[in-house]
Amino acid sequence: MNHLDPVRHVRGESQYIDDVPVQQGTLHAVVFESPLAHGRLRAIHVADALNAAGVIRILTAADIPGENQIGGIVPDEPLLAEGHVHFRGQPVALVLAETEHQAQAALHLIRVDIDPLPIITDPRVAAAQGELIVPPRTFRIGDSGAAWSQCAHIFEGEAETGGQEHLYIETQGAYAFPTEMGGVRIISSTQGPTAVQRHTAHVLGIGMHQIEVDVTRLGGGFGGKEDQATPWGALAALGAFVARRPVKLVLDRMADMRMTGKRHPYSSDFRIGLDANLRILAYEATFYQNAGAAADLSPAVLERTLFHATNTYFIPNVTATAYSCRTNLPPNTAFRGFGGPQGMFVVEAAIVRAAEALGVAASEIQRRNLLRENDLFPYRQPAEMCNAGLAWDTAEQVYDLPKLRAEVAAFNQQNEQCKKGLSVMPICFGISFTKTAMNQARALVHIYTDGTVGVSTGAVEMGQGVNTKIAQVAAQTLGISPNRVKVESTNTTRVANTSPSAASATADLNGKATQLACEALRERLLRHACTEYTLHYEGLDIRNEQVLSAGQPADTTWEKLVSSAYWQRVSLTENAHYATPDIHFDPVTNQGYPFAYHVYGTAYTTVTLDCLRGTYTFDAVRIVHDFGESMNPAIDQGQIEGGAVQGIGWMTMEELLYNDEGRLLSNSLNSYKIPDLYSVPQRLDVHFLETPGHPRAVLRSKAVGEPPLMYGIGAYFAVREAIRAFRPAHQPTFSAPITPEKVLLNLYPALAPTATSAVVVSN
Ligand code: LUZ
Ligand code: MOS
């Protein structure tokens, strides 16, 4: 089945927030941002701006009727700054005007008095000063301290990964409408409609039942709208609540880049110990997460870093500790992989450090330490239905690793100015929200009297194709054509208390709920058929909209059956609840069984490096991926391709830069480079690993959202290999992204800037 949306997308018919017809009386909102990264907020002067043409109101923290608080895990984030400012771009005031242009013009007339305070942008500096968001966490198995004495080889080092801008094509935004009895209806570009509802109710000081949030689709989310759609929804709602007029708030691209958080940069230390046979005996890692100025989702991201600290390897003695460090940057947030990629980069760096020092291929160490069936992760869940070895072996066979290696070696022999590099990147990713309670979903299914079907769930469509999958589940379970099924907007009034569409788990959770609802309806209709047409329940079925009795067409069709059920007053509506079975996790002991299952895979990345210019081209990324029994291979392959390229961008060209004043320098697409047609791999192969899938995955079709991003980590190590082909004795520091500039500095260290030639960036 094709993805339902792309035809509408390319025709421009799909509706995003900015396409919603503007209602008469709508006010346009823009946000006044803190011009400083840290300080005491003494006064906000709005009188001049209030006199500007078209300006209706300017709202500050003092206008908030409820509590000025939108923190999720930790209540440390005001909706509008009060008393202090903690990052540049922090919302301070909301201007409401008749037109967006008038609102923008008024921004320049607002002045604030701020007494500057010291600014921290570096997570290690924050940790040294005790600026932690939550107490540090440690995952431990075995006794790494005692294991060092048994190691034949021990290596240590540091590894850094940068942030990443989500760059969803649709920027953040919301459109809020006052409703009767003091409520608000919000159209929001959010992955988490319930989060917008809950926080808005809290800010307005009213019940959640007074707030309705509706989401048709997003133009991309990638984690950036899991928590951080909330401020814009709440601000628009605040405007609508106070002014009693509709309020539209859509960030322009540069405002979005300045004001919103991104993937967390990490700075980490590692120590790895191996025996004489290259088995990893011990691993210690310390992670410093740059959380930004408020907790947001950082503690959960930090936890997932620890869950994935050993990637797809079995290591018997592990101590991994993580610090969530408060800095004066916008609060960093969920981004595809959710801390997992940052943890996996460090263990891969440790393996590469060992391999380079020992003069063996990194893949030799990787292969010998792959997880096997029932090996324990440091959090004590066993690797069950473990496909790590199968994915590795299949890649070797399908893509002929020895031949690829020989080609790279031959090329490097024959070329001096260009060098090739090849990396192997095996991955393992746990599927479920690590907070067990979030692994629940509901589906509300209506069958209409003409036999068409409406399905509502908590799943948000953001391009990933979840609506198509839900329509498939409903159609397959009911025995009807997907053309009869409509997946409705995600709406908090129809389906309540939803988890965000996140953690790769959306299709599993909402698809399973849809399946349960449709199974109940199907059974009810078949029971009705028994009495209505005097048939035996055993052997009754619906296939292709035909009722079958013991395999033979009965004298009724789907349409007739539905209609007769209605006239016999049989309910054609079902609401089902699904909660992932078997999972649990204790955040005190850091042990349990947190994941429904794991997804595995292996990627080979080949790069050609121009050693004169420092530029590189990815020749090929060759992937073997564990889809289970894919229910939609076209959508799933698209997720793998997109994820891999997004990961390559993070590891190579996407360089997020803040200066010491906490000002974003890479603040537009002029200065922040993402993969385009010219920089994607020339060839991207995806091989479907043949496995029976997993019973906790919807229709045994495994989650595909986040795991492929981590194939992109291979891009970093492929470029590093190519650098070392040019300068064999050189061991670059582990610092991603490995931009062409960093490549050049590694190829020609004499080019490195001295203190006196430091780059000056003007305002
Ligand atoms: N969001 C969340 C996530 O709240 N919990 C998670 O475990 C998670 N994992 C991946 C992506 N988003
Ligand atoms: Mo996400 S990083 O699954 O919102």
From TrEMBL:
Protein name: Xanthine dehydrogenase
Gene3D superfamilies: Aldehyde oxidase/xanthine dehydrogenase, a/b hammerhead, Aldehyde oxidase/xanthine dehydrogenase, molybdopterin binding domain
Cofactor: Mo-molybdopterin cytosine dinucleotide
Keywords: Molybdenum, Oxidoreductase
Gene Ontology molecular functions: iron ion binding; oxidoreductase activity
Chain ranges of the Aldehyde oxidase/xanthine dehydrogenase a/b hammerhead domain: 11-118
Pfam families for the chain: Ald_Xan_dh_C, MoCoBD_1, MoCoBD_2
PANTHER family: ALDEHYDE OXIDASE 1-RELATED, XANTHINE DEHYDROGENASE
Keyword Oxidoreductase: yes
SUPFAM superfamilies referenced in this protein's UniProt entry, alphabetically: CO dehydrogenase molybdoprotein N-domain-like, Molybdenum cofactor-binding domain
Listed InterPro entries: Ald_Oxase/Xan_DH_a/b (IPR000674), Ald_Oxase/Xan_DH_a/b_sf (IPR036856), Ald_Oxase/xanthine_DH-like (IPR016208), AldOxase/xan_DH_MoCoBD1 (IPR008274), AldOxase/xan_DH_MoCoBD2 (IPR046867), AldOxase/xan_DH_Mopterin-bd_sf (IPR037165)
Keyword Nucleotide-binding attached: no
